[in-house]
Structures are given as C-alpha cells and as structure tokens.
Amino acid sequence: MSAPRIVVDVDNGVAPWRQVRDQLVRLIGGGVLPVGSRLPAIRQLAADLGLAAGTVARAYRELETEGVLMTGRRQGTVVAALPSHAPDPLSAAAAEFVAIARSLGASEGEALNAVRSHYGAE
C-alpha cells in the first residue's frame, strides 16, 4: 500500500507528529482520502517518512480520539469521518504544495513564481 503524500520538515518548529496529523486532516478534508480509505500501517508510514513509529502512532491516536480515524484488528486504520475542522479543498491543496516546496528547499518567492507560471499557462 502506498502512503498518502505527506512531507515532514523536522526543522520547521512544528512537532513531526503534529505535521503528520495536520496533513492527514487536510488530505481527508480535501477528499484525497475519503471516508473508508485505508491508511498505511503505522510502521510502514513511519518508515516512508523516516520517523519513529511512536510519532506516527501519536498522530493516528489523536485522530482516533477525534473520531476521524478508526482502527480495527483486521481492517487496519481507516478514515471514519470527515474532520469537523477541515479546511476547504483549495486551502488544503495550498498547504500541501507549501509543504512539498519547503521539502524541496524552495524559497517563498520560488514557490510563488512556480504557481504564477502554471496559473497563467491555461
């Protein structure tokens, strides 16, 4: 199973578990991970992101507490409900783009120029 597109920047000052949690909220709220979607196992996502399993487990646990995720023995972790505080899809896409741009080392100006060049291309 491939992991959803999540990028963790250990230098941005936000705890890695929180980055994972917030990005999952955006992916679920934006429809990238609809209700019923199966998430990667904790160990698999942790390995994909280069994080400790406990870090991903905390993000999953927080979302389980909020009723967004549900974990079962045979079905693994699945999206149970939309987050009550999910951003709109455009905001979610922008947040994901910013996370990716940062992971690539792009400056704010470079990221904005990339958006502008593609926005006017149609």
TrEMBL record:
SMART domains associated with the record: HTH_GNTR
Keyword Transcription regulation: yes
Occurrences of domain HTH gntR-type (ranges): 14-82
GO molecular function: DNA binding; DNA-binding transcription factor activity
Keywords from the named record: DNA-binding, Transcription, Transcription regulation
Protein's UniProt keywords contain Transcription: yes
InterPro entries: Tscrpt_reg_HTH_GntR, WH-like_DNA-bd_sf, WH_DNA-bd_sf
Protein name per its UniProtKB record: DNA-binding transcriptional regulator YhcF, GntR family
Species the sequence originates in: Lentzea xinjiangensis
